[in-house]
Design brief:
Largest sheet: none
CATH architecture of the largest domain: Orthogonal Bundle
Distance between the termini: 31 Å
Helix content: over 70%
Number of domains: 2
Order of helices and strands: HHHHHHHHHHHHHHH
Shape: globular
Radius of gyration: 21 Å
CATH topology of the largest domain: Clc chloride channel
């Protein structure tokens, strides 16, 4: 058995022992995700509801000064974590690149990244939780594998299983998330398709454990617009909307590369960079509160208030969300970009529907979300699974076309070119 999984003998007894071990690691990853979510939920209530209430401010997001102070505090803490630990932030693509290259994840880097990401999220960061959770769950898998003195190939399998268990529990899509963690590795010839089996086992177990404890299913909180059924013209709309989402994804990538290049000389001053991100986040977030946080809960607000917000405001919200997420990620805040890309895609898709009401709202939403997110994640098969989980299964053909159109448009442009290992 090799570190990339190509030597796995799926008919052997050791393989079934490995599956049992991966199920255990998937369970541990689900418990880690439960703990992360509980701390995030409780901490957010304290910071953004209880604390401003004690200060007589009502809702925290309703006070511009409070928003700015809290975001600056988050920037200070994020920068301090980087300064004290000397562990630079890594993007989701870099974390998965480390796994595909070495078959493990640095425990210290992953756990510090999870803490830094949690702090950023608590203080309003326009970032997703999947980035910190990927590093944290992968680090947990590698750490425990080292303690158990597992050989390198087994370490690779259980580290991969830990990440799959986290994704499966968090996004309720065992197959989609198992494929996401391996899709890029298959392209580069780094990982074998045989690792999908341990990944699916871990994802499935992780999802069951997470659901039994929390009762949460990905997308269960949303009330999406009804879809009357597929028509041939919807496939043509999907092509155009997917390209539109892909173009927004290219804008995200261009902005991130430009801002990261500009901030590179100041990387030795992480506190100053993170404070700058907190200031930008606070000033813009005080004016546009919907752009704060990951965007997970705010998507429903967009859907419910689309007509009230109007085309111009929705476009501004989508563009600002992209800019704020880029700012946070390029200036030292740890986080993911799945949920922020979903929020930005939803805002832009709803704007299209208001401008062209003959295109079904569900088609606009799914296709722009699909196009934008695939430009960043570069995992068309996995994203088709994930987005289909959110919406009506009858939308699968339009989602597939939108994903494929955007993927072909953006294929040669990577957020992190050749992300084989973490930078720094």
């Amino acid at each position: 058995m090799t570190a990339d999984g190509s030597g796995l003998d799926i008919r052997s007894r050791p393989f079934y022992k490995l599956l049992a071990l991966c199920a255990l690691f998937g369970t541990l990853a689900a418990l880690l995700t439960v703990g992360f979510a509980a701390v995030y939920r409780t901490g957010s209530q304290i910071l953004w509801t209880w604390l401003p209430g004690q200060l007589g401010l009502g809702e925290g997001v309703g006070s511009p000064l409070f928003v700015i102070v809290l975001c600056l505090t988050g920037g200070l803490l994020v920068g301090a974590i980087t300064r004290l630990t000397r562990v630079p932030p890594h993007l989701l693509a870099e974390e998965l690149g480390e796994l595909t290259t070495s078959g493990r994840m640095d425990p210290r880097h992953g756990l510090v990244g999870m803490l830094r990401g949690l702090v950023g999220l608590l203080f309003g960061g326009s970032i997703g939780p999947e980035g910190p959770l990927t590093g944290g769950s992968g680090a947990l898998g590698t750490l425990l594998a080292d303690r158990l003195r597992l050989p390198g190939p087994a370490t690779a399998a259980v580290t991969y299983a830990s990440i799959s268990g986290m994704f499966g529990s968090f996004l309720s899509s065992p197959f989609g998330m198992a494929i996401l963690t391996i899709e890029g590795g298959l392209e580069k010839g780094k990982l074998s398709w045989k690792l999908l089996i341990p990944g699916i086992v871990a994802s499935s177990v992780g999802y069951v454990i997470f659901f039994l404890i929390t009762g949460y299913t990905f997308g269960g909180m949303y009330e999406f617009p009804a879809y009357e059924g597929l028509r041939a013209v919807h496939l043509a709309y999907a092509l155009i909307l997917g390209l539109m989402g892909g173009a927004a994804g290219l804008l995200f990538i261009w902005l991130f590369k430009a801002m990261r290049k500009v901030s590179l000389p100041a990387r030795s001053r992480p506190v100053g960079l993170a404070l700058l991100a907190g200031l930008v986040l606070g000033v813009i977030g005080s004016a546009l509160p919907l752009t704060l946080f990951s965007g997970e809960a705010e998507i429903q607000v967009l859907i419910d208030r689309a007509a009230e917000l109007g085309i111009a405001t929705l476009v501004v919200l989508g563009m600002v969300k992209i800019a704020l997420t880029v700012t946070c990620l390029s200036l030292g805040w740890s986080g993911g970009y799945i949920f922020p890309s979903f929020f930005a895609g939803a805002a832009l898709g709803l704007a299209v529907h208001l401008a062209l009401p003959f295109i079904p709202e569900a088609v606009c939403l799914t296709c722009v979300i699909a196009g934008l997110s695939v430009a960043l994640l570069r995992s068309p098969i996995a994203l088709t699974f994930i987005i289909q989980t959110l919406f009506d299964a009858r939308l699968a053909p339009v989602i597939a076309i939108a994903v494929l159109a955007a993927f072909l448009l953006t294929y040669r442009v990577e957020l992190i070119p050749g992300a084989e290992a973490p930078a720094g």
